[in-house]
Please model this.
Amino acid sequence: MLVELDLFSGRPNPRWRLDPGAAEEFRALTAALPPAGPWAQPPSPGLGYRGFTVTDADRVIHVFAGRVTEGTTSRTDRDRSLEHWLLTRLPSSLRDLRSLVAEALEDGRDD
Amino acid sequence: MLRIDISIFSGRPDPSWIITDESVARSLLSDVADAAEGAVGIPGAGYDGLGYREVVVSAVSDDEPWPESLPRSFALGTLGARDLGRSAELARRVVEGMTRHADTRLAEHEQTPLSDDLRELVLGEINAFEAEPPTWTRSPALPAHPLRTTAQETAPAATCYIEFGQFNPGFWNTPQVQPNNNCYNYARNIRTDTFAQPGRAHGAQTGTMACPNVTQAALADGFVRRFQCLPDSEKPRWLTALVVWPGQDYHWYRFHSGNFWGHKPGRTPARDYDNSGNRITNPETCNRGGYRDFCGYFYAGRSVVIR
Model:
């Protein structure tokens, strides 16, 4: 399972793999989220943090702003727990990004 | 420059190449324009089954000089054209030049290298396609394309001429282009499909995300600072702006006719608005999120090479 942190504009985004145990946990956490009602896609903020993209075989899942979308279906994640969970799985080589993303999540708490 | 894509394979990448020779590109576009009414189709509008489908010719920048009668991406040798015979004739001409344009390396060449065998295969398939066309419906007419204008800008020390291109996000915001081209591609106005990095084409890439370092890398690629005037031979000469998220990343903008700026944040769509949703009229004061350091303005002429 490949995770991409959608953060940069010029440099390639950071990417890393989840180990099988973490991948299984991600699937379970995602499946437990309630389906979202009719909603509009939150606007992309452009520069800066834009969420996570998780590629699981042929599944592509976007996690951003309390929404977890896969194709045309979406789930609600009101407290952005999945984003926080993914942030804790950031590899140690990328640890300097953790506070930047945490700050962005905090700023968007009331979105 | 022109990009050629032969739509023929299903699993492996289709044969693709870049025509960098301006005289070859001009001659081809001129001949196709003369025959546009009968010979040209819209990409993807013709046969879409397995096997040979069409030859697609595209601009590699959103401001390539282009005949009025042609869309900026069009198909030859296609059932989308009214006159398949003429369309196939022009498609064969394009394909015959395949191996002469192998110098510009594309990711597709790893699995689909350009070779004489591949050229003969495609030519044979086009002949068979023309002789016995699959049953299909025909395509509608063609859209137009934007142009650029030249203007002068003056500072106390210099008066320079630059080009203002029209904002054309449709060129960038397609599944083939958007994920593989970033803000640096957008600023230089060239699709490389490599997520281009300042300095990489000239062994001068930097890992230090600070104005002086990224600036030096871009200068190595051929960017020049604003008001270091470029000659007419450097047309189109784009006005660009560089900003930096200290220690993390960099970002570029490009000026457009209409007095606003466009940009493309990473893999996201090209746009003309900032993080507040406002159209960008000043990159120094627009909402740039964490990209707080404004490094300056630069010209990007045609000799700038990025990768």
The mean pLDDT of chain A is 90. Strands of chain A lie at 2-5, 15-17, 52-56, 59-64, 67-70, 73-76. The helical segments of chain A are 20-31, 81-88, 98-107.
